[in-house]
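Researcher: Following up on the earlier apo prediction. This time include the ligand. It's flavin mononucleotide, with the SMILES given after the sequence.
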Amino acid sequence: MKNIIVIVGSPRKNGNTELLADAFIEGACSTGNHVEKISVIGKKIGGCIGCNACYRDAEHRCVQHDDMEDCYRRISIADVIVIATPIYFYGVSSQLKCIIDRLHNPIRSSFKVKKLGLLAACADEKESVFDSVITMYRAVLSCFSLDDGGMVTVCGVSEKGNIAGNPKLKAAEEMGRRI
Ligand SMILES: Cc1cc2nc3c(=O)[nH]c(=O)nc-3n(C[C@H](O)[C@H](O)[C@H](O)COP(=O)(O)O)c2cc1C
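Model: Understood. Below is the ligand-bound prediction.
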């Protein structure tokens, strides 16, 4: 049994990213894992301001006291982290990027995470839209010596709910079962 955290980076409730994440979660739960979802919806998480106060503080506290405090706690016990993002201008959503940047904090050396996974959705029909996010994902795997838990990318989904019936939902469920 693994502790899995799925960070859903879309501010659109029940949007394509969340439905993709839910399919993954269904698969991961079906094989007995403990899965928690962190959604950016309703959270106030500022971007890193680069002050490096967390490097000087004995407990690596951030000067920003916001919802990231709860995220640090939840992420710290995860064996697996899955990032789910809509593509925003060829990158991850700004809301998710704030969370990722706030992990530039030495507190992360106490994290247990061994494996990462990626889920992403975009409106365009071209798979190349995911290139920059996949490059970032692979760089993070390499930098932190993490195992690749797999990725599912879904093109051609623009409006909320467009992903319904997409065979990639099954692929995400399967990724969850295998992770
Ligand atoms: C600010 C913004 C930027 C976007 N940029 C892109 C993009 O660069 N390429 C693309 O294919 N789709 C882009 N999209 C479309 C979303 O990726 C697409 O609608 C996706 O399904 C949204 O996921 P959601 O339903 O989980 O919010 C953008 C949407 C928004 C709101």
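Model: The chain is about 35% helix and 20% strand.
Researcher: Noted. I'll compare it with the apo version next.
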